[in-house]
């Protein structure tokens, strides 16, 4: 019933055995589980079908044909093993023992271990933290005691030593003579008598060397004084004074004007040079006619508002009493309906927002800027970074570091416990919750970390939405990630996957395109698969792979302000409803305009004091066209990384498959 535990076991399993139903194969829950396993990376597997002997021979053939047809989609070349006799069971075991093992890249380059036994030794000063002694077989690569280990679902830890206890599953019978064999997982605690058995005949393989041991530091401690400006030198002061003298000019100003105010006064000559020199026939339009049209429109709108107020009346509506539990469900439905509306509006009018009436647009959008071209305009990746960027690590060349590390793994021999050895790891400063989780029967999976993989950075995943999920997923909503061997919670950003240097933010996870998901998370070297889940449930949202570890990837949020043409002339038009004050029009005057029908233009001047403006375009507008103004701002993910994932809701059947009586009871 725990999908995350199934995925954790599949990360380290050599083989998976799928037991199918003789009639239907698998249900919707099985289909969901298979989707997750295929997306994460499927190890070697086998298919078996018990039962079916009580059916008539003719019907048995029809059922087998139906099952084979169902298998073609998921397992096109798989062999189906019946499980009805001892001989058939022996064939299945022989197949599992001799089949070719599939390679999973993210685990083959790291040492990993599935706990066969575990014991928790509390620390002297605290019972909630202590040393966890985990016993199991080393797989993947040689395990070095100086490296860090990651306990899936709990975080990164250091090791103090590695022991070599007797192998409980040895193939040599002389080693196991006189000892009790056990094929099940055994959980040992200080209160049990098994401590002495675990401690006897233990050989210490290696102890950690503090000088060579990897550090647990995952974040940079920022220095608040690091960004402060130093006192300028005498040469810099002289250069600044010389540049001020060179840029001085003489202007006529009213009495009492300060130097700062005088710097903003423009001469008549400068004003004339700054004006656009456009020789179009529409430049001779009478501005008085425009202002008169604007004033008439304002008077008509006031009359319409008064008429609407006269038509309205107030009345008291009684609220019906409902069940409290039902009201809670209705509130959830309303929240989901609101999300559906937002997603639909974002599809119909991408990035469009309404200009606020109570706050000036120049204040509301002061962090945004205009771009001549989203594709070619420059944007410095080191500009206006948040304080969280002072806590992360960044590579000078990530791909070169990755290649160098993988080359070291292939060529150099690491000292430590070799693959296949049965060892006991002494993991330091582990919370007692890890042992409690193991006692509940959940798998305890450990992975050794490559250098730098404990450090925080910005990870980018390329994902595609899973067809089974149709609910809207908003950006910065907290999700559960299965990234390679890690499992954690984070709040991602969604952005377009392009080859440009800037990438537009997507407010929702699109169902029809591959998107890039950006989060703060520990460094992981690709290749690594990624799965995204909803919080506290098993709903698979998206699947994909790790794209890069790059804090310099620029994700830009776009806002679109829209206006409507009020009076249209040959190549000019009066536009309204984009702004509501003269100052806002002057503030955004340098930004280029565009229309939904492909016209481009710019603001020439404001008309009146209510936000109407005279605009010039490269062609005549249509009356049904809409004038747009694009603004941009760089955005960053929220720092919500948490390696401790809460327990999800156990698997249950969906409401659509429940009998009618059960639905009514709920």
UniProtKB/TrEMBL annotation:
One of its GO terms (cellular component) is preribosome, small subunit precursor. It comes from the Eukaryota. One of its GO terms (biological process) is maturation of SSU-rRNA from tricistronic rRNA transcript (SSU-rRNA, 5.8S rRNA, LSU-rRNA). GO terms for molecular function: GTP binding; GTPase activity; U3 snoRNA binding. Coiled coil: none annotated. Residues 174-195, 209-242, 265-315 are annotated as: Disordered. It holds the Pfam family RIBIOP_C. Keywords: Nucleus, Ribosome biogenesis. This is Pre-rRNA-processing protein TSR1 homolog.
